[in-house]
Design goal:
The protein has about 80 residues and is α+β, with helices and mostly antiparallel strands. Helix content is about 25%, strand content about 20%.
């Protein structure tokens, strides 16, 4: 079986963690812990890809290089 690799983002959110895959718009999930969010995301990605394939959509693999960075901007007083 072929395997796909995607970059995932897991970030703190109210009461837990928000997890998503930038290459798969609409593929988001949550968890009370990082580990739960990661496990939920694994399932969410599998289901998202199944639905895309069933609909005849092309899988949008992550383009490399992917840069996750921080942007600093001044705030007006």
């Amino acid at each position: 079986m072929a395997e796909a690799h995607f970059t995932a983002i897991i970030e703190p959110d109210e009461g837990g963690f928000h997890a998503f895959v930038p290459a798969l718009p609409g593929c988001h999930t949550f968890g009370a812990t990082v580990e739960e969010a990661q496990a939920n995301l694994q399932e969410a990605v599998e289901l998202h890809l199944e639905a895309m394939l069933a609909d005849g959509e092309e899988i949008p693999f992550t383009r490399e290089p992917l840069l996750v960075t921080q942007v600093n901007v001044p705030l007006a007083s």
